[in-house]
Every structure is written in structure tokens, then in C-alpha cells.
């Protein structure tokens, strides 16, 4: 394989990682806001009513609340990075020069890749151990290994987004399945495989008429 061929192969691999991880990131985000967060809100409300009105709390409520909260947070992590919603110390970051900000972004990306990469690997390694010992919750007789596997998956997707979008700039996303904040928020938009937007043919015909 020639050097040019090797670089082309790496470009294609990076492109596929970018496309897959961005779609996975947005899918996890929608799972969090439409499934796990509403379920958490409903369960917490129900548990409070049962506890303080009927004096009959859900014995397993605390365990399920913790699992749903963990899933909600980890569902949002990769998408939060893509949209630049992650927490940073603006009081210092805003005072950096452009070069200083670039180096800070590089340091944050490398640190995130190491941290979440180790989390993904350790979580995946811990799943067989949890299956072997049949680990369950304190009050919830439910196997916990699927949740550990889910945590590992979310951490892996986060690593892929850190690798594909190290600057955490939403405008630089190559395969967006959602518009940027300036374009209207989180409403889905056509992907690259869906063809050009409806207004493009009209614009092309206008140019031809000119």
C-alpha cells in the first residue's frame, strides 16, 4: 500500500467513525430526553406522593432513580460535547489568547479521550464479573450488568466524538443530524444521504435563469 493509499484509507475510516458516532450520539441524546428523563420525573413524583401522602414508599424507588439518573447523564454526554454544552471555566478560558484556547481544547480532548476510554474499557471488563456473581441492586432484585454495559457504550461513543470533533464546535460537524443552535435547535434535519434540501433545486433554477 502506498502512502497516499494509506492516507486515503485513514480518511475513509475517520469519516465513518465521525458519521456513526454522531448519529449514535444524537440517538442517545433523544433516548435521554424522551425516555429516561421523563421516566425519572414520573417515578420521583410517584415515590414522593406515595411516601408522604400514603406512607407507602416504593422500596425499589431509590435504586431505580439512581439508575435512571445515571442513564440520563451518560446519554447526554457525547451530544453535550458536540454542542459545546460541557462545563468549562469561562472566567479563565475567555481571557486566553486564540492559541491558548486551541491548546486548552487539545488538552481537554486528550484528557477526555483518556478518561472516558478507560471508563469504557473498565466497564466492559466489569460486565462478565457482574454476570458471574449475579450482582443486583440493594432493594431492586434486577441484574445490574446491562446498566454497566450501557455506561461503557456511552463512554465509548463519547470517546469517538472527542476524536472526531476535538474542538467541540457544532458548526464544524460534517454529518449533522440536527441543526446548530443558530439554525433552530434540536429539530432533525435531512442527513447527507437524503439528498439536497427542497429549496436547492429552486435556487439552482434561479441561477440558470440569470
Q: Termini separation (Å)? A: 48 Å
Gyration radius over CA: 22 Å
Q: Total number of helical segments?
A: 6
Name the poorly predicted regions.
188-207
The main pleated sheet reads as: none
N-to-C series of helices and strands:
HHHHHH
The helix content is: 55-70%
Report on the structure:
There is one protein chain. This protein is mainly α and 210 residues long. 68% of the residues lie in helices and 0% in strands. Helix 1 packs antiparallel against helix 2 (61-82) and helix 4 runs antiparallel to helix 5 (145-164). Residues 188-207 have low confidence and may be disordered.
Chain-wise SSE layout:
Layout: H1 3-52, H2 61-82, H3 90-93, H4 98-133, H5 145-164, H6 199-209
Helix pairs in contact: 1-2, 1-5, 2-5, 4-5
Features:
mainly alpha; single chain; 210 residues; 68% helix
A few lines on this structure:
This protein is mainly α and 210 residues long. The protein contains six helices and no strands.
Amino acid at each position: 500500500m502506498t502512502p497516499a493509499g494509506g492516507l486515503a484509507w485513514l480518511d475513509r475510516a475517520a469519516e465513518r467513525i465521525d458519521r456513526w458516532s454522531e448519529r449514535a450520539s444524537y440517538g442517545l441524546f433523544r433516548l435521554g430526553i424522551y425516555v429516561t428523563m421523563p421516566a425519572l420525573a414520573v417515578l420521583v413524583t410517584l415515590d414522593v406522593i406515595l411516601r408522604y401522602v400514603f406512607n407507602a414508599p416504593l422500596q425499589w424507588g431509590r435504586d431505580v432513580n439512581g439508575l435512571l439518573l445515571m442513564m440520563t447523564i451518560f446519554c447526554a454526554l457525547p451530544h453535550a460535547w458536540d454542542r459545546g454544552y460541557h462545563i468549562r471555566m469561562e472566567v479563565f478560558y475567555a481571557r486566553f489568547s486564540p492559541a491558548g484556547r486551541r491548546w486548552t481544547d487539545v488538552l481537554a480532548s486528550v484528557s477526555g479521550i483518556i478518561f472516558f476510554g478507560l471508563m469504557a474499557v473498565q466497564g466492559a471488563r466489569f460486565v462478565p464479573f457482574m454476570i458471574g456473581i449475579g450482582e443486583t441492586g440493594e432493594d431492586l432484585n434486577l441484574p445490574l450488568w446491562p446498566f454497566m454495559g450501557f455506561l461503557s457504550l456511552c463512554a465509548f461513543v463519547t470517546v469517538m466524538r472527542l476524536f472526531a470533533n476535538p474542538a467541540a464546535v457544532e458548526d464544524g460537524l460534517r454529518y449533522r443530524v440536527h441543526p446548530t443552535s443558530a439554525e433552530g435547535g434540536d429539530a432533525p434535519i435531512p442527513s447527507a444521504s437524503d439528498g439536497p434540501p427542497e429549496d436547492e433545486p429552486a435556487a439552482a433554477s434561479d441561477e440558470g435563469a440569470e
